[in-house]
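Predicting holo structure, adenosine-5'-diphosphate bound.
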Amino acid sequence: MAAVSAAPVIRADLSEAHPRPSGAATEGEAHEVETDRHGMPIHPGKTLGEPVVVLKDVRKAYLLDGGASVDVLKGISLSLDTDPRDGTPSEFYPIREGEFVLLRGASGQGKTTLCNCIGAIDSVTGGSIELFGEVLDAKAADSERTLADLRLRKIGWVFQSFQLLGALSAFENVELPMSVLGELSKQERTARAKMLLAMVGLEDRISHLPSELSGGEQQRVAIARSLANAPRLMLLDEAVADLDTRNQVAVMNLLLRINLERKVTMIMVTHDPHLECYADRILYIRDGRIEAQQINAKQTPLDAEAHAAFLAAEG
Ligand SMILES: Nc1ncnc2c1ncn2[C@@H]1O[C@H](COP(=O)(O)OP(=O)(O)O)[C@@H](O)[C@H]1O
Ligand SMILES: [Mg+2]
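Done. Tokens:
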């Protein structure tokens, strides 16, 4: 058993730039959450696993035409390293197996860049990312085969714009990552694709092309596809930003179910404060750094009707 201290880890003093969500568990006074010996909170009702994403002073600079460079990520750490001066743990702890983390912040602050670096589709220029024990640093960018394998097996991506292949049916889109991995027979792939489409509520749409599906349906196909190879981490960049309120809530509730039932770790980028209630932790990104974090004691789904009414009343 880990020793338990009772340090307060929920902060009430988040800036006004991050308005409180509607009806969310994060609303109201800060309260204390028990922490383990590493300073990581003990979530009531949810057991989180080992650290799976560890960031150490992650930096990303883009070289512009003409030779100038722009610093986009300016030293992001999510780690248990202690301060060498006083031995205190770093403020932001690693992402743990089964955790649902939201990355919030205004446009242009580096959220997508961070997501892409964690998901091994972009490389860092300084510091390191440890993803399931695999170290991604500036040197790792060379071993494209390792990175491609990591992406295919461990990571499920969901993007704002769905990015389904337009010439393939829903079923074929979901089957594709399994065919690329090449570990299942045709029969097993078919059964799994059907199971995943049923899980997202689209068992009667499997032969439809993306153009024959609504936005919400397309995003549910994209979620089913992202789960094809049973990833341990889902990365969701503004995955509900293009959906109407009811579909947003439906997709968020689906993601919460996947997170709780399948214990898939989730990192989701959003600018929507109302979605904070779905997360275990919210990291606020500003100017390439983590500005603050907030811990949500209990993940809570929104009610679609009530949320739509709330937004309508809010204007
Ligand atoms: N390939 C690139 N080359 C140069 N600058 C980039 C590139 N990609 C992103 N940036 C810059 O990095 C900053 C952060 O971008 P991004 O990570 O997309 O922010 P966010 O997702 O928070 O809106 C922006 O100022 C953007 O212009
Ligand atoms: Mg972005």
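Residues 131 and 225 are 21 Å apart (CA to CA).
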